């Protein structure tokens, strides 16, 4: 999921902070403390025949490329990578995300070249959708297919809090190849850079089309993706706790 250029950063940061507050509020005090402390019988999100899942972060946002307790699965074909990426990008949960962030951006009057009113909101929504879809395609479908890298997140699910946190954040730079080995995550680094360049220099307001804005967007995307990996690592723990509390 894409973040936003610097001009929209304030509103997006507030939304991320709000989600983070919910995340840590619901997190168990010893989340991920030790494998032995976990309920091994607690259900995980099932792996689908195509090697993806039907899970949703916070029961809303598509989380189809996260696998739990599934270290040995066949690689995705290029067609499967594109299919699941497009399913996520056009999912109602992502549309709700783009609509919400467009409203926050309009309230902040970020990228003022879009203007206000319904036209300004429509332009911001369209830009958010295009940003997110472009980054998703680049980092989860196009580059992974070209470089034979696996776009899925394989949850560690064991060890202490800091071990799992380091593992999640490290996925920005490390990923699994289609052959099962560990590689530098060129798909994330190069894919997000390509998406930032396309976003900045094509459909955003002319006043914002400069290299420093593209660089800021690239950094924002990497930072937000790191936050997303962190959420994907600990969400199963939170989900189990919420279900047990019912």
Oligomeric state of this protein: single chain
Question: What is the average of the pLDDT values?
Answer: 83
Radius of gyration, in angstroms, nearest whole number: 18 Å
What order do the strands of the largest sheet run in, or round the barrel if closed? 4-6-7
The number of distinct helices, counting runs of at least 4 residues, comes to 7
Number of domains: 1
Structural class: mainly alpha
Major pleated sheet: 3 strands, antiparallel
Strand percentage: 5-15%
> Segments where pLDDT lies below 50 for 5+ residues?
2-15, 21-38
Name the shape in a single word.
Answer: globular
Helix content: 55-70%
| Helix and strand run | HEEEHHHEEHEEHH
> Would you report the number of β strands?
7
Question: Brief overview, please?
Answer:
57% of the residues lie in helices and 7% in strands. It has seven helices and seven strands. α1 (9-26) crosses α3 and α3 crosses α4 (117-147).
């Amino acid at each position: 999921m894409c973040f936003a250029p610097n001009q929209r950063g304030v509103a997006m940061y507030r939304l991320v902070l709000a989600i983070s507050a919910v995340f840590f509020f619901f997190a168990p005090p010893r989340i991920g403390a030790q494998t032995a402390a976990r309920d091994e019988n607690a259900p995980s999100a099932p792996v689908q025949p195509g090697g993806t899942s039907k899970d949703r972060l916070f029961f809303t946002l598509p989380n189809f490329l996260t696998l739990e307790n599934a270290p040995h699965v066949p690689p995705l074909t290029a067609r499967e990578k594109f299919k699941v990426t497009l399913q996520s990008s056009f999912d109602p949960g992502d549309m709700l995300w783009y609509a919400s962030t467009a409203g926050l951006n309009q309230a902040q009057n970020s990228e003022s070249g879009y203007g206000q009113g319904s036209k300004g909101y429509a332009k911001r929504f369209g830009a958010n959708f295009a940003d997110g879809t472009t980054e998703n395609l680049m980092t989860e479908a196009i580059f992974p297919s070209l470089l034979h890298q696996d776009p899925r997140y394989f949850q560690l699910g064991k060890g202490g809090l800091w071990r799992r946190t380091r593992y999640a954040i490290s996925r920005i730079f490390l990923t699994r190849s289609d052959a099962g080995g560990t590689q530098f995550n060129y798909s994330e680094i190069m894919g997000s850079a390509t998406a930032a360049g396309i976003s900045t220099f094509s459909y955003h307001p002319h006043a914002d089309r400069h290299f420093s804005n593209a660089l800021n967007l690239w950094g924002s995307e990497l930072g937000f993706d790191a936050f997303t990996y962190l959420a994907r690592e600990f969400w199963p723990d939170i989900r189990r706790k919420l279900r047990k509390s019912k």
